[in-house]
Amino acid sequence: MKLNYYTDTDSLYIDLSSKPSAETREITPGINLDYDNEGELVGIDIDNASRKLDLKDLTLNHIPAKVHILA
């Protein structure tokens, strides 16, 4: 899983899978869900993320994964 924040568009994209997106559905204004060809959720796109989320704080709780921090 990857969290990608784009300052130029103030959007946060959450990659849930490496599979490509085949369909996008807007579930509420500014929040889109991406699905693969089999209907599995592969990503979440959040527009105006800084207005909808607290981007200054990220807590990972009991996640059994290696964490990579990219600046």
Question: Which key phrases capture this entry?
Answer:
71 residues; 5-stranded antiparallel β-sheet; 1 helix; 5 strands
- Uncertain residue ranges: none
Radius of gyration: 13 Å
N-to-C span: 17 Å
- How large a portion of the residues is in β-strands, by DSSP E? 35-45%
Q: Helical stretch count?
A: 1
Helix content: under 10%
Q: Tally the beta strands.
A: 5
Principal-axis shape: globular
| SSE order, one letter for each helix or strand | EEEEEH
Strand-pairing-aware structural class: mainly beta
Within the largest sheet, what's the order of strands?
Answer: 1-2-5-4-3
Mean pLDDT across all residues, rounded?
A: 94
- Major beta sheet summary: 5 strands, antiparallel
